[in-house]
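Dataset card, provenance and construction

Sequences and ligand SMILES were collected as paired inputs. For each pair, a complete structure of the chain with the small molecule in place was predicted and serialized as structure tokens. The example below shows a pair involving magnesium ion. Curators did not alter the output after generation; any descriptive sentences attached to a record were derived from the structure itself.
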Amino acid sequence: MFVQIEDLVYQYRNASEPAIKNFSLQLNEGEIIAILGESGSGKSTILRLLAGLETPKSGMIIINGQKMVDDHTFIPPEKRGIGMVFQDYALFPHMTVENNIKFGLRHMTSKQKQKRIEEMLELVNLLDYKKRYPYELSGGQQQRVALARALAPAPSLLLFDEPFSNLDASLQMKIRDELKQILKQTKSTSIFVTHDQVDAAALADRTVLIEKGVVKNISKVEPPKSYSLI
Amino acid sequence: MKLVQQVKTQINMWAILSFVFIVIILLPNILIAIHFFGEPNENWFHIKEYLLFDIFYNTSILLVSTGVATIIIGTSLAWMITVYKFPLRNFFRWGMILPLAIPPFIGAYTYQGMVNYTGFIQSTLRNSFDLQVNQKYFSMMSMEGTIFIFTMFLFPYVYVITKSFIENQSSSIIENARLLGANSFETFVRVVLPISKTAIVGSATIVMLEVINDYGVVKYYGIQTFITSIFQTWFAMGDRESAFKLAGTLMVVVIFILVIERVIRGRKQFSYSTTKIRPIQPKQLKGVKAWIAFSYCFTIFSLAFLIPFVQLIFWMLMTYERILTAEFYTLVKNSFFAASVAALIIVIVGLIIANYSRIHQGLLPKFFARVTVLGYSVPGAVIAIGVITIFLMIDRNLGSLFKLFSIDTTFVLRTSIVMLISAYVIRFLAVGYNSIEAGFEKVGTTFTEASRTLGLSTFRTFLKVDIPMVKGAIIGGFILVFVDILKELPLTMLLQPFNFQTLATRAFRYANDEMISEAASASLLIILISGICIFIFHKVLDRGEAN
Ligand SMILES: Nc1ncnc2c1ncn2[C@@H]1O[C@H](COP(=O)(O)OP(=O)(O)OP(=O)(O)O)[C@@H](O)[C@H]1O
Ligand SMILES: [Mg+2]
């Protein structure tokens, strides 16, 4: 198992009951998982726990053989090698597209960095935009920069929190297909959160349904049947 | 094991530094509390018997009258300027903040200089109309005069805070009241005042804390208050114990005011809705009404800014040749140096504490934030005697330490500028902190989290993301603190090293030595710098609101 999540429990400081109760999940390398659930069901909280932005009350997370969290361990977010695309993208407004992508690159010569930036920009089809600032981009372009920024350090796991919620419907479909292509092309293991069944079915290999912090159902997505027009 | 993990994630550089700063802030107060409950001496019984009643009486009158007067003037102006258009309204909108650029003590001696025997009012009456007036009615040096000065130079606090509160309300509230049949005055009294209660009470509290903190006005006008009594017992009588007792009693008064504020404010917080609201569209006033509104604003503006400002310019023109010497430049240098060093330290300390309480939730960070803000409620003179006492202790210990190693040293912290700057930092940290905290609040935590998932530690995130993103708030905080220190009097008077004077203390000394026109140059420089900062602020603020 590439990612192993066992019995995670998390309770917000001022809440009366846990937001996440005994959450367990396993992922294979390169797999795409969709977490589905109503608003307030705890989807974002799971991603935050994985990223290390919150500390679970109990439970264990192992990624690629490295223990991230258990009763004795807590690896801080910056040492986890997990990429995250935020719902509102969180692009640094004081940096250009190029510098946003460069932000997470470490232990590289500047030539290597430059090469990596170009690769990423090409991947998300934004080569001409590297000198722009985030506010000079459309919503869809911002989303792609956020993706490129998260992918650039080659994270072992990628997390997406409602990646399409800020885009209008027609753009959603286009970006969704692009995203799937990119994720498969880069063989990224990823988890994304959504409350849209259609998104989940189109993108993921498996979907996890949660309700009030508890896993209700895990199901495989059937590969789309090919319709033939006769 | 769980606990150890928790502690490990909680205790880090940020927590430790914040803790150290908080202890430093609290130390003078703790010292005062200890002495407050200590054995009283003979003199204290004397003070208690003959002075304390007067002090309490004067303080209560000053607080209540100034509080009420600033609320009346401040809220009426805020309402008028927000909902009506009349001649010069756009100018008054920010011009009404300008009186804050004049420290009350400068206003006090300027007004006294205008109305006394040699002042321009009496000279004009004498020379042009051959009128001799009863001196009794031509002196500001009374309780009424003091209240007038405080009201004129402090009402902008109420005005600014209430105005921005009303401006942030949706126009539908006012429109609804009108639709329900209320006229303007009714709307003001029955809708606007109640919903602005938090803002009004909060700003009136600031005014009262300023009145309590004041030394210059009451000393010059001869009104006995806590601060003047602390100066007397400390300086004139050399009776530290009684000064501590007075400071402690004053702190009880301060706490009382803060509690009352809490009670009046209640638990209801009328929070702004996050969705974009339709701003209030001011209504054009016509005819007599427009001129009444204009005259009211113009009168207040003249009394609180224009008249004293013009008078000071006259005095400066009379004296500047004698005043603008090398000594004056030393004053400027001293003021700028002390204010900018202290403001720099405050901004750094404020950033650390704000960042700590932002990243970590929980009681301790919240407590830290609270203490930081409360620092501003402690009057400067109280902080000063607390700080002196601490430095005396440090000096004593350092002295014996140096002797131990038989190092001959004349280095004494107590008389150095280190002490003055430490006290500034303790007193004004809240001002810088508030600005920075507001900046962080606006930015949120997502960018910090994004940076950390991209592999940057808290510290590197702080440098590369957090600081650049709240740059505006940092600069704003720096300027606010800088101006406050430039105007500061009581703390500086108590703690300034030998041969070290600031523009404010020099101006006060001139005025106190009946050399009122000589005080004008230093005063004007203070007013000019403060005024420019206020102007910049207003412009930046307006631009921010427009976006
Ligand atoms: N900072 C917080 N403090 C206290 N409770 C919180 C906090 N953040 C979230 N919660 C609560 O935890 C639960 C799960 O929240 P979470 O944000 O994970 O939901 P979500 O599934 O992502 O919802 P949405 O689809 O609306 O984004 C909710 O009941 C929420 O109210
Ligand atoms: Mg969510």
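Derived descriptions for this record:
The first strand of chain B starts at residue 84 and ends at 85.
Chain B touches chain A through 24 residues (CB under 8 Å).
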